[in-house]
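Project channel, design review

CF: Before we commit to the Hucho hucho constructs, I'd like one complete example in the thread so the newer folks can see what an input/output pair looks like. Taking ABC-type glutathione-S-conjugate transporter.
RD: sounds good, go ahead.
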Amino acid sequence: KLLNDIKLNRLPFPVMKTWMSHGMVGLMISFTTDKSIYTWTGYMYAVLLILVAVFQSLFLQQYFQRCFVLGMKVRTAIMAAVYKKALVVSNDARKESTFGETVNLMSADAQRFNDVINFIHLLWSCPLQIALAIAFLWIELGPAVLAGLAVMVLMVPINGLLANMSKNVQIENMRYKDKRMKIMNEMLNGIKILKLYAWEPSFQNQVMGIREQELGVMRKFAYLSSVSTFIFSCAPALVSLATFAVFVAVDSENVLDAGKAFTSISLFNILRFPLAFLPMLIAAMVQVGQHTCTHAHTHTYMHTHCTHIFHLPQKMHLLQDNLPGKLVAVVGVVGSGKSSLISAMLGEMHSAKGFVNVQGSVALVPQQAWIQNATLRDNILFGYPLEDSRFQATLEACALGPDLELLPGGDQTEIGEKGINLSGGQKQRVSLARAAYSQADVYLLDDPLSAVDSHVGKHLFEEVVGPTGILKDKTRILVTHGVSFLPYVDEIVVLKEGCVSEVGSYQSLKDRKGAFSEFLDTYAKEEGKQHTGECVCITGFPPADDETKKGQRLIEKETMETGQVKFSVYLQYLRAMGWGYATMFFLVYFIQNVAFIGQNLWLSDWTNDAEDYYNKTYPNWKRDTRIGVFGALGVAQGLFVFMGTLLLANGSINASRILHTRLLNNILRVPMMFFDTTPSGRVVNRFAKDIFTVDEAIPQSFRSWIMCFLGVLGTLFVICLATPIFTAIIIPLAVVYYFVQRFYVASSRQLRRLDSVSRSPIYSHFGETVSGLSVIRAYGHQDRFLKHNEKVIDENLKSVYPWIISNRWLAIRLEFLGNLVVFFSALLAVIARDSLDSGLVGLSISYALNVTQTLNWLVRMTSELETNIVAVERVNEYTEIENEADWVSEMRPPEKWPEAGRLRFENFKVRYRPELDLVLHGITSLLKVLLNILHLVQIGIVGRTGAGKSSLTNCLFRIIEAAEGRILIDGTDIATLGLHDLRSRLTIIPQDPVLFSGTLRMNLDPFETFSDEEIWRVLELSHLKEYVGGLQEGLTHGVSEGGENLSIGQRQLLCLARALLRKSRILILDEATAAVDLETDNLIQKTIRREFSHCTVLTIAHRLHSILDSSRVMVLDAGKIVEFDSPSTLFNKQGHFYSMARDAGITTVDSTALYSTALDNTAL
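CF: and here is what came back for ABC-type glutathione-S-conjugate transporter:
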């Protein structure tokens, strides 16, 4: 590197070449002034000049190649290290840094490391260049150089101060970025909830608020940068002014001749680069250092005492004695610590005392199934080799056979992100099948039977978990809310408030008459009727067989523009900046360039004084005029650059604001279907990498491009002025140059697009890993996931590495072209030596020496601008996705609508996408008759998986729009209303209890429309008052990302509180009590009956007993209504409903029939 650097350095003229060139410039000038030198000497100088330049180019590119590859390796290493850390980071540490922050680490911060490594050697090569340049200047101008040096030294503290201020601003900027990404990530994960509750405006305002703060900080940073740019653009002019002024002032004998002036100017040009680049490099390193510090906590294990400290002496003892083949059930109410116990056994919790010892391999089935975006088969095999007989046996035991027949590709069907195209029950069965297939020694089953139909639950217990199942010889620990399974387990552990209250067999605990026997007595009446099973529904997604039509994958490959970036994309960016800013910015830079050329022409004229006043006294007025004008033009340049950067800063912040607002606005308005088929990594990528590019990279490359473009024009103008014949050479050079540049830009641009697209899988895989951490760690599959992460990073590198190579390809060709410009300008000077004045020859050659890297830089900047403008193209792509209906339409419903809660479906048909089959196609006249009269009643909706139950609720909220027919609520066609008017007047308690990070109050009432008293009242009704009252911060208690610091039961109760707060006339329960124990289920059902007695309640049947007291039950099958009547009538009919009830162990519905008849009478 040292050898290289003596020959070269980054953009400007590498020192040895410079030294030789500086010698050459001097020799060429003396050749044109001294007519006695032979002509062949001039030709020799010209040839030497091109040889030096060629060597320099070769050294320079070799050095760059090595630096860029090293930068790429560092970035890759950081991404892999962050991923590896995420796999082993403790749960406490995970709370410290959010998913958004970690994604930022992998995207923006790793990229910054890459950029700094590319130029790291400049840390010592810049000072080396400065030292050498000063040494040569001393030879030319003597002690006068010290004046210039003094000016440079004065710059250092100013730069230090600016760098320090920039650092603080940058820290603040990263904090806002992380905060914004965290909220965005949560919004994308809970987008369905936002739509159902019509909460998008509240979250949009939150993001916009943070974004405004972020832009404020960016503006501050841009202003600081403009000040430092001003100082450093003035620096070379001030340094040369000080030096020349002192040189001519100290001694009247000192006359500035062409040789001295232009040798000095080319040396000052060398100084220009290290002086400008060193502070930028230091600032970049400060930034990088900052990110390593800011995120250092992500890289350490955090050991804090966790809140769930278990008192489990009996449990420890129990597990030590737990012989292989035992089935142990863990029971207890919501929040008693059942899931925490499973976490503790996996080592996922901090142990305050004692230890857990698990012998053999472990398989985990978590309470919320974790499904990968892979084929169904890969989800079950989970990295184990395929053994066909074992695989088939597992599918059969887990009741997945019928589902596979429905799926288009059987077990090769691709499952969407988070299992989006499977129902809740299917996800849970896949999760159980994964565990069963793994043939582990110990099975930890966290309530896997709560999300499946009752008859399926029975089947799974008999075939998989129970004493006769395929896992009968394994150690199984089953957390369950189901009373009916308990007689068949070997041992039962009862938990109460984090302590083991009882342990024993079913019979012995019953006889003991303790907490367990009370628990049983409460539910004795339930036990005969049912167990934890539930009817599953599809999750707002077409049954997977809808996909067969086009034979397409569910998750389409990310689209990618090809060919040249359309000019309209540039115009869009300039329009977002504001035409005023853009035009003024260009004008100011143009004037600055004119000042720069003017200064050099003035200098060339000044050097001719040496001949005019040869052997005469140089008049003082002339000297003062020369110095004054030279200095004034230098300062003018600085001022114009300062104005230009300020204009650009304001313009680019305008553009950033507008583009981000458009993107956010549109993403919140696209239909749910988009999120079902688009991995969240893609959308995150738009908000992380692409917005980062719009904020920081585009303004930089835009400014550099304008400066390079004007610089090239200026250089050619000066050379043509000196040697007009040079215009003849420009044309062929320009043609070659144009073709090289087009060829390169096309490849480079496409490689950058490939780079962007191949980044999304890295983030998607990372997001998936973080959400399934406990499962990956339980199975011990960290290495396999690390390998997969390496694989997706490698895929990304396949487009990064060729891009680096393409840059070198370009640079070599362009530098050779530039070297030809130098050669021809020297050659023409030799040919026309008789008609030229020495000032202009010096000027034209020193300019020509500069043109090489300016040309190279222009193409590089053209390419970088095109590459970066792709971010605008990608952001625009997501701002043009078709929206769902308007949030508010011209037709507004009355204030108290719906007052009666009267529902009516007319010939209602629906499909998920235009090309797919109908999902609901029988909701026709049957409903017209029956539902016309229904209001203030409870309707239970039941049906097997995929019957269309959830599709019905999705239609009520217009998550999917009608293909035909309509739905009327109180006589108003819902299709005529704005989505927010509709959604805010209906209430749903959804299947998955989604919470957002923030306070408890924000999760209940994001628009802050209710008083604290009302909120405490609903917390009391939803049985959370005691819990929230016991928290230190009460309603302002912080909820962590995804509500992870609350149990699933508590989250479900919070969702009930949301519904109670809204008090609308129509309530939809979508498997609302799937994750809670019988006691909590009972509480919820009672509260709903009492508080919503005046409403129409549609219950998608989960535990069948909860809809036996409905006034009507609707049985759906394959999107058609097959039965509709009161539960007792349907039961006696012995049709679909009867067979489902029998499967659930319900033998009679008489006990509740009276209640339902009474309800019927009041309703009618």
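RD: helpful, thanks. The radius of gyration is 37 Å.
CF: The first helix runs from residue 2 to 7.
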